[in-house]
Every structure is written in structure tokens, then in C-alpha cells.
Design brief:
The chain contains 25 helices and 13 strands. With about 675 residues, it is of the alpha/beta class. It is elongated. The structure holds adenosine-5'-triphosphate.
């Protein structure tokens, strides 16, 4: 019995959303939504009884009905100090924009927005560019939390992190890894985000369905592309972004301008898909610029925003009636969306107006008076009704409230996630790893060094100094190559990481470990080729043990430096700053690395002990010039024991493997620090 139930659930999870069993007609009133939610509760309860081992969580198979209420939502940002050099411009900007009130040096972006939306409905956010649609969407999606006032509840519960995996957010800019193909993007997302109990076949089938539904068959094997990588078209990228989010059937789907860049047929098709998703029980909020008339009437609710104020909220189809009741009527046949946008911008050419709009006074021009009038009417006519409705609404059933607050377990174990993320990271970065130019550079430099130090000897101190110079150069080369190879990784991948972490797709530790391990392959691969050439051309000690020990030392230097680069990248998360800090510290460690410095003042002596270059260089020297070689050198005359050389802050050649342990500890320590910095920075970042 239980098996059959599990199969049913799996089938449901695979079935197209439009064919879901929870079809209801678009409901606009709260009553319908409550009924809907009650039905959903019964279903959930039924399933919970059927699956007793607790492994399957009903919430993973069917969307949890979510009713979103927002009341008096305000959002403000700190104003940057006025940098305008033009006093006239500053003066004008201070008076000409009454909507942009400045309080305590903050600019108000959202100015008291109230509304609600339930499962089965689509709410369209409309308004002129810069009116605050995206900001409101981010606030509702929990992406903006600071400086937000008012109340936003999900089944009467405020936002909490357990909601992350129930919310799908399609951002205005498509945030997709550029080197993956469309299919790879969706497959990796499916394997990371779909419940663990679904078989791989079912996950592939879900991807197939999304590709078909969104018309992505033609470009499924094309790379996503980006600024420097050719790839799919803007519309295809947008559809892939949408597929990426709807793949997991989120309960609350937020979309920022999903139709921008699409032709009208594709846009209509997309809206149909959204309708299907809504009918199957999702709550959908979308910003939209200029929908066609056909599209406009598919929305259940409309929130029209002007300069951060609401000017209409309610049934989309009834919006024209409302404005007509205020005596705003189009004089010619117009697309309703165009008419509403004209009103929200105050551009009223071709629109008949009521006579009670106050004459523009002071700095207010006529556009502003229309907007002010509409804002006032909203405040007096619509807002009280909206608030009353919200307060009269029955509370959501208790277990739905509980479900909102219950954090779902990870659907995959740490190792399972790591295997998928490792594969994805490798695919995404493999072009960097096997970059021909990089290989040519490493091999070219190796050959050049080999020729310059061709069969170098250590018969006297001058020769010995020469060879030690080469060792220090090798140390610098791999230190800087590895630091700069690693420092930009996190700043570059920040947007992808923030997006995926906001959706709780995987553990951050998984991402970090996979990223560092993948890159380590390259940090080990290149020094190996390099050393194979330099070592034998330059005439280092010809024993197998010594070659492998030198190779190991070089790789260890590269791997430790990679950790340092990651630390700077993670600590700043900014390409420019990370590069600057890395070069500064590299320079300091280089100077105190033991080659140049002979008379460091005692108060600066400590620097060398934190310099991985100091230990790396010592290790290379130890491997190459152990007691035997120096003794031989000395016995032929002219070569003093290295310890007594005044030119190097060198080695106690009798030492053991302490440099190896120090470098290993540093490689691990820098990585741990990098991980915690990354964790802190990513939690603070918003998209
Ligand atoms: N973090 C911020 N700092 C300063 N200003 C901001 C910030 N976020 C938003 N704004 C400003 O708030 C206003 C609303 O921005 P928002 O992106 O929400 O507009 P929008 O209606 O979505 O516009 P569009 O349709 O062009 O995307 C804009 O004037 C924008 O410059």
C-alpha cells in the first residue's frame, strides 16, 4: 500500500503542472483561497498518515499553499552624499521630486504598499520604470530585509529561512553559468533541487518536460553564454531561467519581467504556463512592463505602483472600471495596460480627466498632480477596504503555518551534493583548466628558465647563488600564479552563489570544497609539467627522490598560495579590492621570503613566520641542498656551508619535515578562514 502511494506521489511530481490534480478556477476572493487551503491541508494530512517513516515530506511533492499578505510595506535606502558638482541640479532635484521624500538622509523607495495574493492566483505588479516593482518583489521574496518596515506574512507567519526552498525567484538579469548548455543547466538543477526519492530517470523526465514546455529543444545543447562567451539568445536565456525555477514547483513563484525579450507568441505561451502553475496551486507574483490586452486579462490581481505608492490594487479586470469611476477614461481605444501605465506616469494625453484634479502649484507640474490625485484616491477609496479585508480574513490552518516554519531537510546527503557540484564546477571551469594559452605560457617560461640555467652547477658560491636564485624564482612564479588564479573565483561566481544559496540549493561547504578541489587539479597539473622541463634542463640534483621531493614542494607552494588567493577573494568579494590586497601581500611575503632579506629589523622579523613563501623557499632549498651536497661542494673549495652564508636568511639544513607540516597547516588554515569569510559575505549579499 505504501509503495503504491509512493509511486503515485512520484507520478504526481512528474506530471505536468497544468495537469495537476489541484485544478481550481482562478479565485479572486479570500474565501476561495481558504477553501483551497483547507483542501490542501486534508491532502497533506492524508499523505502524512500514509507515509509513516517520515522520509517523504509531502511538501516536497506538492506545493504548499501559501497566502501572502503585505501591509504598509515601506523600504528606504541610505542616500549617498550628494556628489553633484552642479548646485543648480542639486537644488532642482531637491524640490522637483515630491515622491522622493528624504528622511534622516534616507530615500524612500516603497511608501506604504498593502495587498494580498493567494494560491491559484497571479498578481501582476505594474508601474513605470523606477516605480519600485522589483524592490517590492525582492522584499516579498525575502531578498531585501534591512530597512523594510510594515508587515509581510506567508500564511500569517513572517518570513523565515525555512521558506527559501518554497520560493522560486526569476530575476530580471538571468543568472546562469555561462559555460553550461541549456540541458546541463537544467539537469544539474534538477539533480540538486528535486527530492532525493525521485529516480534519475524521473529527474531527466522532468527536465525533458520543461525543455518541451518552454520550447527550448532547439538550443538544448547550446551553451548559455555571457559577456565573453557566445551563447543562446536573450529570450532563450530568459526561458531557461524560468525553467530553472519552475523545475521544482515552488509554492510561491516570483518573476521579474519574465516576458522582456520574448516575442508576443512566446510571451503569451509563457503566461499560459504561469496560469497552469497557478491553477495547480502556486501563488505567483510577476512584474510586467507592457502586457498585451490578451495577457493583461489573464492576471487575477493587479497592483499598480507609481513612485513607490500604490495607485490601484484589486481585480485586474475591474481596474478600468475603477479608474472610470474616478472619471479617467481613454478617449481612443487603448490597450488597458498602456492606459494604466500612462495614468501611473501622469502622462494623460488622450485620456479624459476629472475636473477636481487640483491645479499644479509650486513645483508640481500637471503630471505630478495627476499622480498625487490617484495616490490620494487610493488612500481614501481602496486602501481601507484592502486593510479591512486583510484583517477580517480567517487565519491560515495551524499546520500550514507550521509547515511554513519547518525547515525541510536536505534532500541529498553531503556527499551526493558534492558529487553533483563537483561535476558541475568541473564542466563550468574546464575551459580554464585546459586553456592552451595558459599551458603555452607555463611551458614557455619553463623552457626559457631551462635555457638560462642550462646544466647549472654548484661548484662555488657564485654558482650556488645562481641556482638558489632559480629556486626562488620558481617559488615566486607559482605563488603568484596560484594566488591570482584563485583570487577572482569567488568574486566572479558571487552572483550565482548568492542566487543558489538564496534558494537553499546546496550547502555552502559543499560548494567551497568542490570549488577548491576542482581548482586544485589545475594548481597541481601545471607545476608538474613546468617542473618536468625546468628540473632536468637546469641541472638540479639528479636523483628520483630529489625530483619528486622538489615537485611535491612546488605543488605544495601552489596549493597553499591557492588558499591565500581564495581567502582574499572571499574576504573582499570584489574583483578590484581582492586583486589589490593580493598583490600587496604577495609583495610583502616575497620580500620577507628569505632571499632578499638579510638584515630585517627585529620588530619586523615576525612577518617571515607568517609568510608561506618563507617556508616554501626553505623547503625547496632543503630538498635540493641537504648536508651531503653542501659538504661535497665545500670539499672542492670555494663553497661555504649554506647556513653560514650571509646572503640568505636560509636554512638549518639538519631540520626535518617541519616546513611541509607548516605549509600543510597554512593551506588548511587559509582555506578555513576563506570558508568562514565566504559564509559571512554571502549571507550579507543580495541579488
Ligand atoms: N539599493 C538601492 N539604492 C539606491 N536606490 C535604489 C536601490 N534599490 C532601488 N533603488 C531605486 O529605487 C527605485 C525603484 O527601483 P526598482 O528597481 O524597484 O524599479 P522598477 O519599477 O522595478 O524599475 P524597472 O521597471 O525599470 O525595472 C529606482 O529609482 C532605483 O534607482
Amino acid at each position: 500500500m505504501e509503495d503504491r502511494r509512493v509511486e503515485e506521489i512520484q507520478d504526481m511530481a512528474l506530471s505536468p503542472p497544468t495537469m495537476g490534480s489541484m485544478q481550481i478556477s482562478g479565485s479572486n476572493g479570500f474565501g476561495n483561497n481558504m477553501e483551497f487551503m483547507s483542501q490542501a491541508c486534508l491532502r497533506n494530512r492524508h499523505t502524512e498518515i500514509d507515509i509513516e517513516d517520515g522520509k517523504l515530506n509531502m511538501n516536497q511533492e506538492q506545493p504548499l499553499p501559501i497566502f501572502v499578505k503585505f501591509e504598509d510595506v515601506e523600504f528606504k535606502v541610505r542616500r549617498p552624499r550628494d556628489s553633484s558638482a552642479n548646485p543648480a541640479k542639486t537644488a532642482v532635484s531637491k524640490v522637483a521630486s515630491p515622491g522622493d521624500e528624504v528622511q534622516d538622509n534616507y530615500k524612500r523607495i516603497l511608501k506604504g504598499i498593502t495587498g494580498s495574493i493567494g494560491p491559484g492566483e497571479i498578481l501582476a505588479l505594474m508601474g513605470p520604470s523606477g516605480s519600485g516593482k522589483t524592490t517590492l518583489l525582492k522584499v516579498i521574496g525575502g531578498r531585501l530585509r534591512e530597512n523594510v518596515t510594515g508587515s509581510i506574512t506567508y500564511n500569517d507567519i513572517p518570513y523565515n529561512t525555512a521558506l527559501k526552498r518554497r520560493i522560486g525567484f526569476v530575476t530580471q538579469e538571468d543568472v546562469l553559468l555561462p559555460q553550461l548548455t541549456v540541458e546541463e543547466t537544467l539537469v544539474f538543477a534538477a539533480f540538486l533541487r528535486l527530492p532525493g526519492f525521485m529516480s534519475p530517470q524521473q529527474k531527466y523526465a522532468r527536465v525533458e518536460l520543461i525543455i518541451k514546455e518552454l520550447g527550448l529543444e532547439r538550443c538544448r545543447h547550446t551553451r548559455i553564454g555571457g559577456a565573453f562567451v557566445p551563447g543562446i539568445s536573450g529570450g532563450e536565456r530568459k526561458r531557461t531561467s524560468i525553467g530553472y525555477e519552475i523545475l521544482v514547483d515552488p509554492s510561491l513563484l516570483l518573476l521579474d519581467e519574465p516576458t522582456s525579450g520574448l516575442d508576443s507568441t512566446s510571451a503569451n505561451r509563457l503566461i499560459q504556463i504561469l496560469q497552469g502553475l497557478a491553477k495547480a496551486g502556486r501563488t505567483i507574483i510577476t512584474t510586467i512592463h507592457q502586457p498585451s490586452s490578451r495577457m493583461f486579462y489573464t492576471f487575477d490581481k493587479l497592483l499598480l505602483i507609481s513612485e513607490g505608492y500604490p495607485v490601484y490594487h484589486g481585480n485586474a479586470g475591474e481596474s478600468l472600471e475603477y479608474f472610470s469611476s474616478l472619471r479617467f477614461n481613454p478617449e481612443i481605444a487603448m490597450n488597458p495596460a498602456e492606459f494604466l501605465l500612462d495614468l501611473a506616469t501622469g502622462q494623460v494625453t488622450g485620456i479624459s480627466l476629472p475636473d477636481d484634479i487640483p491645479e499644479p502649484e509650486g513645483s508640481l507640474d500637471s503630471d505630478k498632480s495627476v499622480i498625487k490625485y490617484l495616490q490620494l484616491k487610493y488612500k481614501t477609496l481602496l486602501e481601507p477596504k484592502e486593510k479591512e479585508e486583510n484583517s477580517q480574513n480567517r487565519r491560515a490552518p495551524e499546520h500550514l503555518q507550521l509547515a511554513i516554519q519547518t525547515k525541510k531537510d536536505w534532500t541529498l546527503s553531503w556527499l551526493e551534493q558534492a558529487i553533483i557540484i563537483y561535476k558541475r564546477t568541473f564542466k563550468e571551469r574546464r575551459r580554464d583548466y585546459f586553456d592552451k594559452l595558459r599551458l603555452v605560457q607555463a611551458l614557455g617560461i619553463a623552457v626559457m628558465l631551462g635555457l638560462l640555467w642550462w646544466k647549472s652547477e654548484t661548484r662555488n658560491e657564485a654558482q650556488l647563488r645562481d641556482q638558489i636564485g632559480l629556486l626562488f624564482y620558481i617559488c615566486i612564479f607559482w605563488t603568484s600564479a596560484s594566488i591570482f588564479g584563485a583570487v577572482y573565483v569567488f568574486p566572479f561566481e558571487k552572483i550565482y552563489l548568492v542566487k543558489e544559496r538564496k534558494a537553499d540549493m546546496y550547502r555552502l561547504s559543499v560548494y567551497y570544497v568542490c570549488s577548491t578541489l576542482c581548482d586544485m587539479t589545475a594548481h597541481v597539473f601545471y607545476p608538474t609539467f613546468f617542473m618536468l622541463i625546468v628540473y632536468f634542463m637546469a641541472g638540479f640534483k639528479r636523483t628520483v627522490a630529489c625530483f619528486f621531493a622538489t615537485l611535491f614542494a612546488t605543488q605544495l607552494i601552489a596549493v597553499t598560495s591557492q588558499g591565500v588567493g581564495e581567502l582574499f577573494g572571499a574576504a573582499s568579494m570584489n574583483i578590484k579590492r581582492a586583486g589589490m590586497f593580493a598583490s600587496l601581500v604577495l609583495m610583502l611575503f616575497l620580500l620577507t621570503g628569505g632571499y632578499y632579506t638579510q638584515h630585517i629589523p627585529s620588530f619586523m622579523q615576525w612577518v617571515k613566520y607568517i609568510s608561506f613563501m618563507y617556508y616554501g623557499f626553505r623547503l625547496l632549498l632543503k630538498v635540493q641542498y641537504d648536508g651531503g651536497q653542501l659538504y661535497e661542494c665545500e670539499s672542492k673549495g670555494g663553497c661555504r656551508p649554506l647556513q653560514s652564508s650571509p646572503s640568505f636568511d636560509t636554512v638549518n639544513l639538519g631540520g626535518g619535515l617541519q616546513e611541509v607540516w607548516v605549509l600543510l597547516a597554512m593551506a588548511l588554515g587559509f582555506r578555513l578562514l576563506a570558508y568562514f569569510c565566504l559564509r559571512h559575505k554571502i549571507n550579507m549579499c543580495h541579488l
